[in-house]
């Protein structure tokens, strides 16, 4: 299953892109597949190779075979880690980066990736750009683009005088081309010393995934433009009627209207629903980052100049409450059985 005798070119430390592959239930997470696609593009642009780092206890043999088709080589860290032992993940990834010295090191901007990336950067003494929505190479320099100043603009960042350029990639934020076919050179076994985590898991609870925006086919988003309780109650009923989950912008969360677990945007969840309704949402970049993966965006706003209309597939200039009343009547009429034909 493993090839411990993989041979790497002497210059692989100069131009290569390494991606940490997160797994869940022994399978690669979709967010990591997206980052691998981004890493593929960067490796091509800088004439380097794409390597994937995976922890042995995280992944199945079948997934390793699948991963081999997505990169030039795999670095399989021989460690058995509990998914909650972040300190051991940090230790292992720091060790890999110190030995392989990649030009670029990428992680997913998941909750887990955001948690471990800063500690890795500190130990490697390198810079870190979080929640990137676009990445490209300028020769060997990584151009990192992310929302800044509350989402009012996109900052273009270049890491100077660092031996490793490190970034986390927003899920659904970077538009990546399909991966190319690579000549896989093998799997390198990376041995680490056995260690005991300083983190002790005392309790855990299973999340109700079906109720969260990132697992829904239809999502209803609520923004600062929804000011009154009757509007919110109408939107919530509308969401229930169409089988949608509800998400919120940062402005709504900050005003204590809603649970931060349903925050959509750069600092919250990135979603990929079939349909996304945006009610009273202006369209700041940090929110748009989280909804780029939506197949259809339907925006309802009283401000015809709202930036959200630049991103929406369908835009309606109207009071959200009036729109909901009208569309609910239409949907109710569609559900009513047709009168039986005479004769």
Automatic annotation (TrEMBL):
GO biological process entries: fatty acid beta-oxidation using acyl-CoA dehydrogenase
UniProt entry keywords in alphabetical sequence: FAD, Flavoprotein
This protein's record includes keyword Flavoprotein: yes
GO molecular function list: electron transfer activity; flavin adenine dinucleotide binding
InterPro entries in the cross-refs: DHS-like_NAD/FAD-binding_dom, ETF_a/b_N, ETF_a/FixB, ETF_asu_C, Rossmann-like_a/b/a_fold
Cofactor: FAD
Cofactor binding, note field: Binds 1 FAD per dimer.
Positions bound to FAD: 224, 249-250, 280-287, 301
Residue ranges constituting the Electron transfer flavoprotein alpha/beta-subunit N-terminal domain according to the UniProt record: 17-208
One Pfam family it belongs to: ETF
Top-level taxonomic group: Bacteria
Family that this chain belongs to: Belongs to the ETF alpha-subunit/FixB family.
Protein name: Electron transfer flavoprotein alpha subunit
